[in-house]
Specification:
globular; mainly alpha
């Protein structure tokens, strides 16, 4: 039975599931190297003519197998260091995109329900008021949990967010275009961000112990092994080493990790699609023969989907390993090359505070510039 060519092109992406495994046994540097290898394979595969892949359907699989067989330290350290810094810098960018997407999705959904109130008044009002009640109940539950578990600083932030939530509610009710469910969703998002900040603080205060097998790999730098050889070596490790690495993997890989990955991939793809559409519309003003619909959306671009999936997944794995372990874990940065302000930004929660500001700023801008808010249909 022959596999479709399209399915064969997706098979290399299944190696994404091995990234947490390599991270647990070998550290984040191996994750970065595997990610670079997958990005190179994706770019090479997209540059090949369609005739070649149709005549030789297993060509991309064979190419990926060759890349997995080369030594992992073949990539120059400079590229690895630059990619490492790009991974770190992407965190606040992704947090910003997520905050904007929360407002976009909430406003778009509530407006659609609001426009159908005349057709189905009871059902639409039920959905709007029900979503409002659920969001405010969730906000209250998170606030009570954090109040009982958090520090005095967290409690002060809870009080501040509660005051901001009341102000947002008053501003929403005062505006004719305001919909109460939007305010409730934004309030819930604020407390979810605070909850994520609280978790990150706890993880940094109680870092996970780095597995010994990981430290041995860092001391030998892989010894010129390929990823296939590393995968085989994992199966021959002692029971103690395997158990320690799997315990690390179990704590790192959770349901919230998968949920965050899905949110980030969707957010990045949508942002790129908006950018492509904006470029097309601006060029259409200068050419009457240009059709915006002829531009390929990011959602329909296999290359964009693959690149975004690989990069976002890598960023989540590497960033979570860094947050959950001691500074020893981030070997790609090195003790000398490491950005001096990196630890400071994480300790004060600057990224999460920035996400809160972006969330509030986006919603406030939406309230006062409702006519300028773009509601896309894709």
């Amino acid at each position: 039975m022959c596999l479709p060519v399209d399915c064969l092109g997706i098979l290399p992406l299944l190696w994404l599931v091995t990234m947490p495994l390599f991270g647990s046994f070998c550290g984040p540097e191996s994750v970065l190297r595997l990610s670079l290898l997958m990005l190179i394979h994706t770019l090479i595969g997209s540059a090949l003519p369609n005739a070649l892949t149709s005549v030789i359907p297993f060509f991309q699989i064979g190419l990926f197998g060759v890349l997995l067989s080369v030594p992992i330290n073949l990539v120059p350290y400079l590229f690895l260091w630059v990619y490492d810094k790009l991974i770190w810098l992407a965190e606040p960018v992704f947090l910003t995109i997520e905050a904007v997407e929360v407002v976009r999705i909430s406003v778009r959904t509530s407006l659609r329900m609001s426009n159908r109130i005349n057709e189905q008044p009871f059902l639409m009002k039920f959905f709007i008021l029900g979503a409002t009640a659920i969001c405010y109940a969730g906000s209250l539950a998170i606030a009570l949990i954090l109040w009982s578990q958090g520090t005095n600083a967290i409690r002060w932030i809870i009080v501040s967010l509660a005051i901001v939530g009341v102000i947002l509610l008053i501003a929403t009710l005062a505006k004719e275009e305001g919909i109460i469910s939007d305010c409730a969703v934004v309030t819930l998002a604020m407390f979810v961000i605070l909850w994520a900040m609280h978790l990150e603080f706890n993880m940094m205060k109680n870092p996970m112990k780095v597995p010994q097998v990981w430290q041995r790999y860092m001391s030998t730098n892989g010894e010129g092994q390929s990823f296939l050889q590393l995968l085989l070596a994992m199966a021959t490790k002692s029971l103690a080493d395997v158990n320690q690495a799997l315990q690390f993997l179990k704590k790192l890989f959770s349901a919230s990790f998968l949920f965050l990955m899905a949110i980030r991939v969707g957010s990045v793809l949508h942002s790129v699609s908006v950018f492509i559409r904006g470029v097309a519309e601006s060029e259409q003003e200068d050419s009457t023969n240009l059709n915006v619909n002829n531009y390929v959306s990011c959602w329909e671009s296999r290359l964009a989907i693959k690149l975004a999936l690989i990069f976002v997944y890598t960023q989540l794995v590497v960033y979570n390993i860094e947050v959950n372990t001691t500074p020893l874990s981030y070997t790609a940065s090195g003790p000398i090359m490491r950005v001096a302000t990196k630890g400071l930004f994480r300790k004060v929660g600057a990224s999460r505070l920035m996400q809160l500001c972006v969330l509030l700023g986006t919603y406030g801008w939406r309230l006062h510039h409702a006519d300028e808010f773009v509601y896309d249909d894709y």
